[in-house]
Amino acid sequence: MSSIAERRRLARSQPPPTDADDAAIERFIDAIWAERGLSAATLDAYRRDLRGLARQRGSLHWSDRQALFDYLAQRTHAGYSARSNARLLSSLRAYFGWCVRRGERSDDPTALLQPPKLPRLLPKALSEAGVEALLAAPDVQTPGGLRDRAMLELMYACGLRVSELVGLPATAVNLRQGVLRVSGKGGRERLVPLGEESRHWLQRWMAEARPAMSRALRDPSKATALFVDGKGLPLTRQAFWALVKRCAMVAGIEPARISPHGLRHSFATHLLNHGADLRALQMLLGHGSLSTTQIYTLVAREHLKSLHARHHPRA
Fold first, then answer.
1. Within 10 A of 29 (CB to CB), how many other CB atoms are there?
2. Are 162 and 261 in contact (CB under 8 A)?
3. Best CA proximity match to 24, nearest among 60, 49, 70
4. Closest Cα partner for 129 from 251, 240, 246?
5. How far is CA 145 from CA 61, 148, 162, 179, 247, in A?
6. Contact 245, 259 (CB under 8 A)
């Protein structure tokens, strides 16, 4: 049986969580949101993880260390990745730690559980020539192509996450000052400078194409998103993924080698290759910890090694 089929079978074979479990999970979600200001996507991930355990055990309250170990082993057998199980364990630690602090449990069953060892995955970044080809792929003679060019330019110029890009309101852009106000993970805001090219294409999109596409709404004043589709509605993550793949094919880039997040990785890698400061890069990317940004130094080092191997006479 395939891993996907095994995961579906595992999900279907368990009863839904009890009302008591659902209530406990929602109390925890409210509390952790108030404490950490986590994003809606992160809170949904916590909710899914805890509901999955509740279905498997029948009750969150009676879960012990052996039960959690068995559940993780069962997920591994069903084909879940080490990264997925590491995230699950993080959710469980947050929940049971919260229960202990509230006095609802005297023990933390996750205390002695070791997270799975994760492989070090280097971000996939395009070459500078590859990025140029991708940015030039949209047909800017059409409203949709003009929007696509502006989105790609903005994502590469500012190193945005996909959710940040599609969630931008039109009021986030200040073309006169050349900055973009971005609301990132945990509601943290940052100001990112716009380059000349991204300002040019944003200005064209907002002046030439966005008003016409926004008029598709019954009330155009409700088109608050910076990037909208043909119906005047905010563009979705899935639609942006599709346009990146479409532009990659036009640019002659193998679609498997590029993803929307790849432009963010390319932004960071190219800045480091040209001597950018790591702390400044952290601020531009909106990382909460410098250790998250440091992975890009590995990419830059690999680039230097490849250049040395290609050009040094004794490499």
1. 17
2. yes
3. 60
4. 251
5. 53, 5, 18, 23, 10
6. no
Tokens linked to 108: 């933390």
> pTM of the full predicted structure?
0.65
Is residue 129 helix, strand or coil? helix
Mean pLDDT is lowest, of 15-19, 93-97, 239-243, for: 15-19
State the Cα–Cα distance between residues 268 and 247, nearest whole angstrom. Answer: 21
Average pLDDT in the chain: 83
Q: Comparing C-alpha atoms, which of 40, 122, 45, 58 is closest to residue 89?
A: 45
* Closest to 152 measured CA to CA, from 88, 215, 197, 114: 197
Question: CA-CA distance, 34 to 74, in Å (whole number)?
Answer: 33
Buried b (16+ CB within 10 A) or exposed e, 191-221: ebebeeebbebbebbbeebbeebbeeeeeee
- Predicted local confidence at residue 172, as pLDDT: 92
Helix (H, G, I), strand (E, B) or coil at 179: strand
Token pair in block for residue 205: 């999109």
Q: Rounded to whole angstroms, how far apart are CA atoms 144 and 229?
A: 8
Tokens 């979705």 sit on residue: 236
* Catalytic residue IDs: 161, 185, 261, 264, 287, 296
Q: 150 and 247 in contact (C-beta within 8 Å)?
A: no
